[in-house]
Amino acid sequence: MTMSTVAANALPQPGGREVPPGVAGSGLADVAASEASLRRFLHGLPGVDQVGLEARAAALGTRSIKTTAKAYAIDLAISMIDLTTLEGADTVGKVRALCAKGRTPDPTDPTTPRVAAICVYPDMVATAKDALRGTDIQVASVATAFPAGRAALPVKLADTADAVAAGADEIDMVIDRGAFLSGRYLDVFNEIVAVKEACKRPDGSSAHLKVIFETGELQTYDNVRRVSWLAMLAGADFIKTSTGKVAVNATPPVTLLMLEAVRDFRAATGVQVGVKPAGGIRTTKDALKYLVMVNETLGDDWLSPHWFRFGASSLLNDLLMQRQKLATGRYSGPDYVTVD
């Protein structure tokens, strides 16, 4: 049985609820008409085969990429990075330096791709926007009381609106994990819808919304599948594993499960959603494993910064060293890349 068949079988009776654009004509428009219907849908999704999922992720991790293909994959990985600084000690100078690195990752080689985005706190958005002027690098901002998400909804919406007003191209929000784990699925859904609305600009355009699950706190793979579908139904443009602020962040099995979810969601709705693993991805070897996973699970459609990102602060340095190794035949060492 396909995921789209399960979705169709789980639909409640039409309730007339307004849903995010793209889902309305899919047959899933009324899934979130009530707490009961949303619960029925989410718990009607197929259970995750833990052994099978972990074995598949491990098998994909053994694939090797050689020579020309490896050079292409390294450049692709660089172009997919959300270069990130999310520390209490962040300064204007640090953010400007990070933006300079994102613009010119390797000053000795102008063929090196730029990163996809610079990710900062809302109060640093204007600084990043100014430093990236004239480039196509996106400015991403965490919001909604990142990383814990423990704030009232008006505070979260103000946080989001402030970042958008400052020029954020993308918003990385955190879900209320307590609400989700308590089974208050409709509260989580409605919060995502409200944040999506707060992403709108006066000209009618919107910042892209990435929804962070903090998968290390969700306890089961079934919960990861459920929250992936919940976020996509609520209008997420990207689904993201983690904040990078807890002990367990992105893992290959969790990312594979999310990739399968976006694949099945597009099959059911025609809507394509991006995926962003974040936290703990530090080496070129790790990044290439994730790219193999994307290629094998989703194909070329998602092998683009528009649809797949790495949330990382240290990954770029290792990619640059490996890139230099392919070009020169020797390792330059960490002293030849800038320290973030």
What does this structure look like?
With 340 residues, the chain is α/β, with parallel strands linked by helices. It has 13 helices and 8 strands. It has an 8-stranded parallel sheet with strand order 7-6-5-4-3-2-1-8. Helix 4 packs across helix 12, helix 4 runs antiparallel to helix 13 and helix 10 runs parallel beside helix 11. The longest helix has 18 residues.
Number of helical elements: 13
User: What's the alpha carbon Rg, rounded to whole Å?
Assistant: 20 Å
Compute the number of strand runs. Answer: 8
Uncertain runs with pLDDT below 50, 5 residues or more?
1-18
User: Quick one: overall form?
Assistant: globular
Q: Termini distance?
A: 48 Å
The biggest beta sheet, please?
8 strands, parallel
By secondary-structure content and strand pairing, the structural class works out as alpha/beta
**Fraction of residues in H or I helices:** 40-55%
Beta content comes to: 5-15%
What average pLDDT do the residues reach?
Answer: 89
Q: Helix-strand pattern, N to C?
A: HHHHEHEHEHEHHEHEHEHEH
Widest beta sheet: strand line-up: 7-6-5-4-3-2-1-8
Brief descriptors of the model:
340 residues; eight-stranded parallel beta sheet; 8 strands; disordered N terminus
Brief description of this entry?
The radius of gyration is 20 Å and the shape is globular. With 340 residues, it is of the alpha/beta class.
